[in-house]
Amino acid sequence: MSQTRARGEHPYHVVKCIFGYRKVRYRGIIKNAAQQFTLFSLANLYLVRKQLLYQQI
After folding, report:
1. Rounded distance between C-alpha atoms, residue 46 and residue 17, angstroms
2. How many CA atoms lie within 13 A of 24 on its CB side?
3. Cα-Cα-Cα-Cα dihedral of 41, 19, 16, 40, to 10°?
């Protein structure tokens, strides 16, 4: 159970601690959702960056 939770919590760590996205300013539901989708997709890329770089070599 903790392994499943850890896999889900890692992108939140990247977004909050590494990208510095702590507080959300309300700009509208659509704009906030688009920004969060972008942040989490970038966080997923950040988490697999070593595998992606290794595949290019």
Report:
1. 13
2. 13
3. 0
Q: What is the mean pLDDT of each run of 10 residues along the chain (57 residues)?
A: 88 92 91 95 93 82
What sign results for the dihedral spanned by CA atoms 19, 43, 4, 50? negative
Total domain count, the chain = 1
Q: Pseudo-torsion of CA 19, 21, 27, 29, nearest 10°?
A: 90
For residue 11, the enclosing domain spans 2-56
Q: What is the pTM of this model?
A: 0.79
Eight-class DSSP state of 27: S
